[in-house]
Amino acid sequence: MNILGISAFFHDSATCLLKDGKIISAVQEERFTRKKHDSSFPLESLKYIIKNSHLKAEDVDYVAFYDKPFLKFERILETYLNYAPRGLKSFIQSMPIWIKEKLFLPQLLTKELNSAFGLDKKNAVDWQKKLLFPEHHQSHAASAFFPSPFENAVILTLDGVGEWATASAWVGKGMEMQPIYEINFPSSIGLLYSAFTYYLGFKVNSGEYKVMGLAPYGDPKYKDLILNNLVDLKEDGSFSVNMKYFDYCVGSTMTNGNFNKLFGAPPRKPESKISQRDMDLASSIQKVAEEIILKIARFLRVETGETNLCLAGGVALNCVANGKIYSERIFDNIWIQPASGDSGSALGAALAVWHQFLGKERVVSETDSMSGTYLGPCFSNTDIEKYLNENSIPYEEFAENDLLDRVADELSSEMIIGWFQDKMEFGPRALGNRSIIGDSRSPRMQSVMNLKIKYRESFRPFAPSVIREKVSDFFEFNDNSPYMLMVAPVNKEKLLKVSKDKKGTSGVNIINEPRSDIPAVTHVDNSSRIQTVHKETNPKYYSLLKKFQEKTGCPVIVNTSFNVRGEPIVCTPEDAYKCFMRTEMDYLVLGDFLLDKKSQKNLVADLDWKKEYVLD
């Protein structure tokens, strides 16, 4: 039985395929269209799955869409009516697309599915008979629980908003999930965090991780102001948001004049200088978010008695908060869906159909059933060699062990390397197959990677990839974190004595000061966002780390996603080569082929990294 899962029309559109309940493929549309957070129908993703799995329209039994459009429309309409006549302009702007498309989603999906399968009107399939619509938070919860390694668990989903729910909790047992807790719009931890993202001059739905990265540079001076004015927080984690200060219900901005007055200034202009006040605001909202999440987690532990926790929803990408849940040992075990945002809801919708609608039993894996989240396109050495030869690109070919030996040598010499291997990752993190890697011991690596490779803000931290068996040698953590969704402190014995912090307006005084034996992956608060690398899920990347350890004594390297600011992670060898040539990376590894930057010809002007690309 084949089930397609689809998320689309808000942000991070994606498609997945389940075959008899097994996850075969899961891919995000942005990787194909090269439009970051692409929200359109995932046509190219679906075409890839169809081609890769030799799928025909008649082979598909069900198509699961990740939310219920009529319920969402009810919430939007009711919200506008409650605030009328405020929001009239926004209402007029949004209604045409709802009336034209979203209220008639079955017809739109039918049209797009037929297009993906190459069916004309004569051969068109009536897909409406195969369409199913789980609720948004049900899709999130299913994505968290059903692939997890737990027979039983409490499931917590936190995001901006689905249809009505902004937070929900479920108890999962076997193939069943029962809802037990819900917070509804407009009170939303996700939208509260996004409001501060907007106020701090970052882009909503993509800049929230910048706020999280900025937070350790500040002090939570505004935490009490937030809790006393913006949020009414109860002991069980339930809360209400004071809408006097927000405009997201009916306006085109997240915050309003009352918010500006409370914090004493208008929103920061994007790309302007970041002040100490901005850092303090980031620290404050991060602490508030952590307090809300921890209260909910403690309540659910007592209320349900469950010892396992599953997390999903966009807020579950807040790995600092995840690390706090872990360090407090509220639950014995935690598993987080690696594609926690809306892209993962495509997978959750399909799993909800398989287990809840069809009543199919779960087979619980010892680790999880995500295959390391390596669920996307794969390019063989034959494919790569053909691309390189057709484009007259100079390269060297190596046997695998010789390649790993050479790459480890270059890493230990502070070279920065694009690493492109096997299947592309599903979700927002590069986990060793579409990665840019460097030496974690290098004091200059963070600033060089940020400014010369990623072209992004200097305060942004980088994550370590560490051999699973060695994680506790470097971090106050001894568990699995394969999806880079857990933050933990660096071990005290690895820390260096540093001069007293002098927090200037830009934070530069403390960014470039080495803080540990692995300074490139040690954030200003001596923490790291850990990826444990496992031989079972990524043997080649694991072997590279082992080889690096043999040469240096260190089993830790820098791992950041293979892209530049504003661009999705690379998908194809062509994407990788273009990114390599638009940056100051030293080497590119494509499969078993090594490309030296010094041997490459200069790219023509139309490969300027600032431009957007749509590949053929």
Describe the 3D structure:
The longest helix has 29 residues, at about 275-305. With about 625 residues, the chain is an alpha/beta fold. The model is unreliable at about 500-505 and about 605-615 (pLDDT under 50). The protein has three domains: about 1-70 and about 100-135, ATPase, nucleotide binding domain (Nucleotidyltransferase, domain 5); about 150-335, ATPase, nucleotide binding domain (Nucleotidyltransferase, domain 5); about 380-465 and about 530-605, Carbamoyltransferase, C-terminal domain (DHBP synthase, Alpha-Beta Complex), CATH 3.90.870.20.
Overall outline:
globular
**In the CATH classification, which architecture of the largest domain applies?**
2-Layer Sandwich
How does the major sheet shape up?
9 strands, mixed
Overall average pLDDT: 92
The CATH class of the largest domain: Alpha Beta
Superfamily at the CATH H level of the largest domain?
ATPase, nucleotide binding domain
Q: How would you classify the helix and strand content by structural class?
A: alpha/beta
Low-confidence stretches: 502-506, 604-616
Give the N-to-C terminal Cα separation: 32 Å
Rg value: 24 Å
| Largest sheet strand order | 13-21-20-14-15-19-16-18-17
Number of strands: 21
Number of domains: 3
How much of the sequence lies in strands comes to 15-25%
CATH topology of the largest domain: Nucleotidyltransferase, domain 5
The share of residues in helices is 25-40%
Tally of individual helices:
20
